Amino acid sequence: MSPNEPVYDRSRPLPSRQVLYQYELANSPGKSIIAFRVTFPRNGSFPPHRHGGASVIGYVLEGAVLNKMNDEPVKVLAAGETWYEAPGCHHMVFDNHLATEQTTVLANYVVDTDVVTEGGLAALTVVDEEFRNVVASS
Fold it and tell me: What CA–CA distance (Å, rounded) separates 23 from 48?
Protein backbone atom coordinates (compact mmCIF):
# COMPACT_ATOMS: atom_id res chain seq x y z
CA MET A 1 0.00 0.00 0.00
CA SER A 2 1.18 3.50 -0.68
CA PRO A 3 1.67 5.88 2.25
CA ASN A 4 -1.48 7.84 1.30
CA GLU A 5 -3.82 4.83 1.39
CA PRO A 6 -5.92 4.08 4.47
CA VAL A 7 -4.78 1.45 6.93
CA TYR A 8 -7.25 -0.65 8.91
CA ASP A 9 -8.10 0.91 12.28
CA ARG A 10 -9.20 -1.61 14.94
CA SER A 11 -11.12 1.06 16.86
CA ARG A 12 -13.69 1.57 14.08
CA PRO A 13 -17.00 -0.32 14.36
CA LEU A 14 -17.51 -3.51 12.33
CA PRO A 15 -20.39 -3.97 9.88
CA SER A 16 -23.24 -6.40 10.50
CA ARG A 17 -24.03 -9.15 8.00
CA GLN A 18 -27.40 -10.77 7.23
CA VAL A 19 -27.90 -13.80 4.95
CA LEU A 20 -30.52 -13.00 2.30
CA TYR A 21 -30.44 -16.29 0.42
CA GLN A 22 -28.42 -19.46 -0.13
CA TYR A 23 -28.96 -21.87 -3.04
CA GLU A 24 -27.10 -24.71 -4.69
CA LEU A 25 -26.84 -24.00 -8.42
CA ALA A 26 -28.53 -26.80 -10.38
CA ASN A 27 -26.79 -25.83 -13.63
CA SER A 28 -23.35 -25.68 -11.96
CA PRO A 29 -22.95 -28.88 -9.91
CA GLY A 30 -20.90 -28.37 -6.77
CA LYS A 31 -21.46 -24.59 -6.73
CA SER A 32 -23.66 -22.41 -4.52
CA ILE A 33 -24.72 -18.78 -4.53
CA ILE A 34 -25.09 -16.93 -1.25
CA ALA A 35 -26.10 -13.30 -0.74
CA PHE A 36 -25.49 -11.08 2.28
CA ARG A 37 -26.68 -7.61 3.21
CA VAL A 38 -23.65 -5.93 4.81
CA THR A 39 -24.48 -2.83 6.84
CA PHE A 40 -21.68 -0.52 7.90
CA PRO A 41 -22.45 1.85 10.75
CA ARG A 42 -21.19 5.42 10.45
CA ASN A 43 -17.40 5.30 10.03
CA GLY A 44 -17.48 1.47 10.02
CA SER A 45 -14.67 -0.67 8.63
CA PHE A 46 -13.81 -4.33 8.02
CA PRO A 47 -10.26 -5.73 8.24
CA PRO A 48 -8.29 -7.05 5.25
CA HIS A 49 -9.61 -10.44 4.13
CA ARG A 50 -10.21 -13.00 1.38
CA HIS A 51 -13.33 -15.01 0.52
CA GLY A 52 -12.67 -18.75 0.76
CA GLY A 53 -12.18 -19.23 -2.97
CA ALA A 54 -15.46 -17.51 -3.84
CA SER A 55 -16.17 -15.10 -6.66
CA VAL A 56 -17.85 -12.07 -5.08
CA ILE A 57 -19.98 -9.43 -6.77
CA GLY A 58 -20.76 -6.39 -4.64
CA TYR A 59 -23.43 -3.74 -5.16
CA VAL A 60 -23.66 -0.56 -3.06
CA LEU A 61 -27.31 -0.14 -2.04
CA GLU A 62 -26.88 3.08 -0.04
CA GLY A 63 -24.02 5.28 1.07
CA ALA A 64 -20.47 4.82 -0.22
CA VAL A 65 -17.60 2.40 0.40
CA LEU A 66 -13.87 2.89 0.19
CA ASN A 67 -12.65 -0.24 -1.60
CA LYS A 68 -9.19 -1.64 -2.45
CA MET A 69 -8.45 -4.99 -4.05
CA ASN A 70 -4.94 -6.45 -4.27
CA ASP A 71 -2.58 -3.82 -5.70
CA GLU A 72 -5.30 -1.78 -7.40
CA PRO A 73 -5.84 1.84 -6.34
CA VAL A 74 -8.37 2.68 -3.65
CA LYS A 75 -11.79 3.52 -5.11
CA VAL A 76 -14.86 5.22 -3.72
CA LEU A 77 -18.00 3.35 -4.81
CA ALA A 78 -21.34 5.11 -4.29
CA ALA A 79 -24.91 3.80 -4.32
CA GLY A 80 -25.61 1.96 -7.58
CA GLU A 81 -21.97 1.03 -8.26
CA THR A 82 -20.54 -2.50 -8.30
CA TRP A 83 -17.28 -4.40 -8.00
CA TYR A 84 -16.01 -7.93 -8.63
CA GLU A 85 -13.60 -9.98 -6.52
CA ALA A 86 -12.00 -12.96 -8.25
CA PRO A 87 -11.24 -16.07 -6.19
CA GLY A 88 -8.17 -15.44 -4.02
CA CYS A 89 -8.49 -11.65 -4.29
CA HIS A 90 -7.11 -9.80 -1.25
CA HIS A 91 -9.67 -7.22 -0.13
CA MET A 92 -7.28 -4.74 1.49
CA VAL A 93 -9.66 -1.85 2.31
CA PHE A 94 -13.41 -2.15 2.90
CA ASP A 95 -14.69 0.93 4.75
CA ASN A 96 -17.80 3.02 5.04
CA HIS A 97 -16.58 6.16 3.32
CA LEU A 98 -19.15 8.24 5.23
CA ALA A 99 -18.54 9.40 8.79
CA THR A 100 -22.14 10.54 9.29
CA GLU A 101 -24.32 7.90 7.53
CA GLN A 102 -24.54 4.13 7.35
CA THR A 103 -23.62 2.31 4.15
CA THR A 104 -25.32 -0.89 2.94
CA VAL A 105 -23.89 -3.34 0.43
CA LEU A 106 -25.32 -6.44 -1.26
CA ALA A 107 -22.61 -9.11 -1.56
CA ASN A 108 -23.22 -12.16 -3.79
CA TYR A 109 -20.84 -15.11 -3.44
CA VAL A 110 -20.46 -17.97 -5.92
CA VAL A 111 -18.50 -20.68 -4.14
CA ASP A 112 -17.82 -24.40 -4.04
CA THR A 113 -20.69 -25.86 -2.01
CA ASP A 114 -18.18 -27.95 0.00
CA VAL A 115 -16.59 -24.77 1.41
CA VAL A 116 -19.86 -23.90 3.16
CA THR A 117 -20.90 -27.49 3.95
CA GLU A 118 -17.57 -28.16 5.68
CA GLY A 119 -16.77 -24.74 7.15
CA GLY A 120 -20.13 -23.02 7.52
CA LEU A 121 -20.81 -19.46 6.39
CA ALA A 122 -17.82 -18.27 8.43
CA ALA A 123 -15.55 -19.99 5.88
CA LEU A 124 -16.59 -17.40 3.29
CA THR A 125 -14.67 -14.57 4.95
CA VAL A 126 -11.07 -15.30 5.95
CA VAL A 127 -9.69 -12.30 7.81
CA ASP A 128 -5.93 -11.69 7.70
CA GLU A 129 -4.22 -13.43 10.64
CA GLU A 130 -3.16 -10.23 12.39
CA PHE A 131 -6.80 -9.03 12.59
CA ARG A 132 -8.67 -12.24 13.40
CA ASN A 133 -9.00 -11.32 17.07
CA VAL A 134 -10.94 -8.16 16.09
CA VAL A 135 -13.64 -10.14 14.29
CA ALA A 136 -13.67 -13.00 16.84
CA SER A 137 -14.35 -10.58 19.71
CA SER A 138 -17.33 -8.95 17.98
Answer: 27
